[in-house]
Amino acid sequence: MQHPLEFIPINVRKPFFYFFLALTLLIFVVFRVLDEPLRTEAAPGGIVSFELAQTVDAAQGILRSWDADARTYAAFGLGLDYLFMPAYALALSTGILLMVKGRKGWYPQLAAWMGWGVFAAAVFDAVENYALWQELTGPVISPYPEVAALCASMKFALLIAGLVTGVAGRFG
What we know:
Layout: H1 10-35, H2 47-51, H3 56-65, H4 68-100, H5 107-137, H6 144-171
């Protein structure tokens, strides 16, 4: 299997990585600001609590804890996340690709799988956001909380695995 970004010329990979890393970090800072009003007793983790609510009752409790302004922040954040998804996927996948340089053995194959895995994480993120939007704008009904929680769990697992793969390539 080939890494999904193998087509990027070698001399462009580092600048490509740094551009998408900077964009990812910039959007992440914006998310930190947007998340502050979403941190309530019912949602101590802000939007992440909502993502992982898993049940209709838990999601409804979180939504009840948010005032109109907080819901606006949540809605804006869900929209902004669609820009964040390709940014973090391209940054992490390129970072993993950069770690392959000159390596032999098992690591290049793992890097190829995880290069695809971070794009799969972005797809899970998009499905999760659709479910969260349905909860935010309409009645909270099953299966939206369950779908959001499953997709968020898959997203986080794949992103953590991608980060571990990148670190393993750097220090392994």
